[in-house]
Amino acid sequence: MSFSTIMHLFLLSSLLFAFANAANFDVVNNCPFTVWAAASPGGGRRLDRGQTWNFNVNPGTAGARIWARTNCNFDGSGRGSCQTGDCGGVLECRGYGQPPNTLAEYALNQFNNMDFFDISLVDGFNVPMDFSPTGGGCRGIRCAADINGQCPGDLRAPGGCNNPCTVYKTDQYCCTGSASNNCPPTDKSRFFKDRCPDAYSYPKDDQTSTFTCPGGTNYRVVFCP
């Protein structure tokens, strides 16, 4: 057997192993309106009410997120814009979205081969969300409050509710600079935490907002659960 054949078989087996151990994600639009789902990695997809987008994510992926974009218009080439969650004016996202947008964040197969996942409102809120494992053994999380309807006036944005860091950009709200080590919650971050206790309300909200599942778990993200 030639060296090139051996390398080809090795690469093929590596790809098959990665695919077999990839996490499967179902992204479901349960909102009474169309959303343009976005994922990094993953791209983007228009989802009318009741539609599902399914994709796989490679083991070891970190810094990943899924979110909904609203009030979008795209042309036949996939270029356009969205009122919330826009990712550079393209349907197939290659980066993160613009606030305000509710985020499902995750990192797969990390410390002790555990997945870490959360719902984050650090970039604000645009649609309610549920982020849950599809099997047993670990709990899911949800942020289903009417945050847009109750949003304080200074945080209101077209189609959503901004996090105070986005609006004020201060160390106090963003946990940067002099507040990077000691950054307690504020009255404005408590607005989000009181309504969605499982979700990140500000950048240092780790203890009550990060959840784990064993590596190899599959997940379901539902908009407007």
TrEMBL record:
SMART domains of this UniProt entry?
A: THN
The cross-references to Gene3D superfamilies, in alphabetical order and at most eight, read:
Thaumatin
Q: Which Pfam families match?
A: Thaumatin
The source's superkingdom equals: Eukaryota
Annotated signal peptide = 1-22
Keywords per UniProt: Disulfide bond, Signal
- Annotated disulfide bonds: C31-C224, C72-C82, C87-C93, C138-C213, C143-C196, C151-C161, C165-C174, C175-C183
Instruction: Give the record's family classification.
Output: Belongs to the thaumatin family.
Any idea what this protein is called? Thaumatin-like protein
Per the UniProt record, the source organism is Stephania cephalantha
